[in-house]
Amino acid sequence: MTAAACQHISAITKPRMPRKHECEECVKIGSDWVHLRTCQTCGATLCCDSSPNRHASKHARSAGHAVIASAEPGERWLYCFPDDAFAESRRPRIPGVFEEGATQAAGMPRPGLMSRTTVTGH
Ligand SMILES: [Zn+2]
Ligand SMILES: [Zn+2]
Ligand SMILES: [Zn+2]
Question: What is the number of H-type helices and E-type strands within the chain?
């Protein structure tokens, strides 16, 4: 988890976050999307390969921008198209990374750490 997946991803110290939670291209053509990704080169938020238009991968190819990050709430990963490299960023070392615009508003989901409030006193 410490080793960077590729040099593109390792060059990213502060991942870009989506400005809006919508695919910029799908909005223009009135289409739908499934998941959103944010280009780490220019900050464009586009739809994933499960979406009908696959704007994120099209953008990566046409613009030559290598790395995207998930723009989905609770997902923290980076993907590099040319290297087919995937990196999880669950615990960013730099405070504030991934936290821009997404403060504790919704309460952070913590998989595997169910809050047990059923502790009876003894
Ligand atoms: Zn790469
Ligand atoms: Zn799209
Ligand atoms: Zn881009």
Answer: 3, 5
